[in-house]
Amino acid sequence: MPAQLLAAEKLVKTFGATLAVAGADFSVYPGEIFGFLGPNGAGKTTTINMMTGLMRPTSGRTLIDGVDVACRPVEAKRLFGYVPDEPQLYGKLSALEFLNFIGDVYGLDAATRKPRILELLKIFELSGEQSHLIESYSHGMKQKVALCAALLHAPRVYFLDEPTVGLDPKSARLLKDLLRQAADAGAAVFMSTHIMEIAQALCDRVAILHHGDIVGMGSVAELRASSAEQTLEEVFLSLTGGSNHTSAPLFGRPA
Amino acid sequence: MIASEVRGSLADALLLSRALLRHRALAVLRDIKSPQLYFVATLAGVTLFCLILAGTFIATATLQAAQAYGLLASIPAWAFLVYLFTDILIAFGQALGDLYLSRDMPILLVMPVRVPSIIAAKFVLGVVQNEVYVAVFLLPFVIGFLLASHVAWWAYVMAIVGVAAFPATLYAALVVLTIAALRIIPAKAAKETLLLVGAAVPTLFWVLSFYRVAHIGGDLASLRLPDPPKWLPSTWLGNVLSSLAAGQPLHALAWMAVLLGVTLVACPLAMAAVASGFAHGWSGAWATPSRRIRNAARALRPRLPVLWTCARKDAWIFLRTPQLWFNHIAALGFVGYLLVGHKTQTPLLPMTVQLAMVQIGFVSILAALNPGMIAISLERRCAWLMKSSPLLPKEILGAKLCVAYAQSAGIAVVGAVALGAGYHFGGLDVTALALFALLMCACGICCGILFDSAFPSFEWENPNMINRGVRMVIPFLSSLGVLALCAVALWICRLALHGAPQGAAAVCCGLAGAAAIVAIVVSASLRRASSNIEALEV
Question: Which of A24, A87, B118, B524 could potentially form a cystine with A143 if both were Cys, beta carbons 3.0 to 4.6 Å apart?
Answer without folding.
Answer: A87
